[in-house]
């Protein structure tokens, strides 16, 4: 007897194929519908929505950063050398946080330019934003703030202070998102994975963090990178005197929060933030936006505004301050050659 087989009519084949498509659609319907909605709204985007999305992305990335550190599954390796010759660390925390943050934003707004410190060859995650806006954002920003989509650049730092992360110096670690419009930083989010604290600001609308009551410009405390503290010491002392207190710290996000008055108590208190070497824009954009939302400043050492629409690199050094005459601070700085 010939072996029995199953034969499908053309109609049966069609039904089978449709069922397969249906399963795939069910799995990715959220992402597909979100992308369709995104393309329909391609001409403009709401900055308030981007702020809420940035907060959610920072928190989701932060969960990965915290989980991998606590599980001690860092899978640490080097991704090369920094411009100063130090080993640049990469961990599973960096990569998993990147995947959560990058794909959450790209699945929601596929047409926006998103620049991340990390890169990933995977197919991505089927994560979508719920479009829930936190109450504290709604209270500060009651209405939409529409801008042309082509003017927007999003900067992501999935894990700021990776060196400190590998050393288990958790207080320095942050996840950050910044939204720039025509190169100007207008939305900034800095999230601390190990405490759950999130600071955000939107230029012209407000922030959930504020400055301290007073700052000392004559005898300042200056926060600097702990990996370059020796290089910057002479520069700062020449500007502000040999008795100037210098605070070495990790992470650009942490250093900006040290200028403010966050509800998180893990910060040294600084009067200004100075950086004299090459730094990437995803490290500084979020802090720049928050300071700007509060009336503060972050410029190059020559007092120039930093453009966040082009190259990923800032080579002009960095001076950040709030509630101090920023131009006067710039005038006190000695000449600096970024090519030193």
TrEMBL record:
A GO term, aspect molecular function: inositol monophosphate phosphatase activity
Membrane-protein topology: Single-pass membrane protein
Gene name in the database record: BPNT2
Subcellular location: Membrane
GO biological process: phosphatidylinositol phosphate biosynthetic process
Cofactor dependency: Mg(2+)
Main location: membrane
Protein name: inositol-phosphate phosphatase
EC number per UniProt: 3.1.3.25
């Amino acid at each position: 007897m010939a072996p029995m087989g199953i034969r499908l009519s053309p109609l049966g084949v069609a039904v089978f194929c449709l069922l397969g498509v249906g399963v795939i659609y069910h799995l990715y319907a959220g992402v597909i519908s979100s992308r369709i909605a995104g393309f329909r709204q391609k001409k403009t985007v709401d900055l308030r929505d981007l702020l809420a999305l940035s907060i959610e992305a920072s928190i989701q990335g932060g969960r990965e950063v915290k989980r991998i550190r606590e599980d001690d599954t860092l899978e640490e390796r080097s991704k090369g050398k920094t411009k100063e010759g130090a080993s640049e660390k990469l961990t599973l925390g960096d990569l998993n946080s990147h995947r959560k943050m990058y794909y959450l934003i790209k699945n929601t707004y596929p047409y926006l330019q998103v620049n991340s410190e990390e890169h990933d060859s995977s197919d991505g995650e089927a994560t979508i934003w719920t479009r829930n806006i936190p109450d504290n954002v709604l209270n500060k920003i009651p209405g939409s703030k529409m801008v042309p989509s082509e003017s927007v650049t999003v900067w992501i730092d999935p894990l700021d202070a990776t060196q400190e992360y590998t050393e288990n110096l958790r207080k320095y670690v942050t996840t950050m998102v910044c939204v720039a419009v025509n190169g100007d930083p207008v939305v900034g989010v800095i999230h601390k994975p190990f405490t759950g604290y999130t600071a955000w600001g939107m230029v012209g609308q407000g922030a959930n963090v504020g400055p301290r009551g007073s700052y000392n410009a004559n005898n300042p405390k200056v926060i600097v990178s702990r990996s370059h503290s020796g290089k910057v010491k002479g520069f700062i002392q020449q500007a502000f005197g040999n008795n100037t207190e210098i605070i070495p710290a990790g992470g650009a996000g942490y250093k900006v929060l040290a200028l403010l008055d966050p509800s998180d108590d893990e910060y040294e208190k600084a009067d200004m933030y100075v950086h004299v070497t090459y730094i990437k824009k995803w490290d500084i954009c979020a802090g720049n936006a928050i300071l700007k939302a509060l009336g503060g400043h972050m410029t190059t050492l020559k007092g120039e505004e930093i453009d966040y629409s082009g190259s990923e690199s800032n080579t002009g050094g960095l001076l950040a301050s709030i509630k101090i005459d920023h131009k006067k601070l710039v005038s006190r700085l000695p000449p600096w050659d970024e090519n030193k």
